[in-house]
Design goal:
Layout: E1 7-9, E2 16-18, E3 23-27, E4 34-36, E5 44-48, H1 52-61, H2 63-68, H3 74-91
Helix pairs in contact: 1-3
Length: about 90
């Protein structure tokens, strides 16, 4: 019997993908939203493709604000975009 692969939906493009192929965004009980590359940080999670365009779409549609039921400040968005660019440049 094949092992079940966990699937999650990207909040940017709304596509179902393998959990390992997505980046988790986490909102801890106290503190700002951050990227969770290992998927182990405590708190409420949402998933986004490792594509900066998906993060931009999620920002435009306010998908993360709905997922976390809280307002996300501009500084947090800028930090997420910087982290995403950093990961993109490390992977190339």
């Amino acid at each position: 019997m094949p092992k079940k692969i966990p699937m999650r939906q990207c909040v940017g493009c709304r596509e179902m993908k393998e959990k390992r192929a997505l980046i988790r965004l986490v909102k801890p009980p106290e503190g700002p939203v951050s990227l969770d590359f290992k998927g182990k940080l405590p708190g409420r999670g949402a998933y986004v493709c490792p594509n900066p365009e998906c993060l931009k779409r999620a920002r435009k549609s306010r998908a993360l604000e709905r997922a976390f039921s809280s307002l996300i400040m501009d500084e947090v968005w800028e930090g997420l975009e910087a982290q995403m660019k950093e990961v993109e440049s490390d992977g190339k």
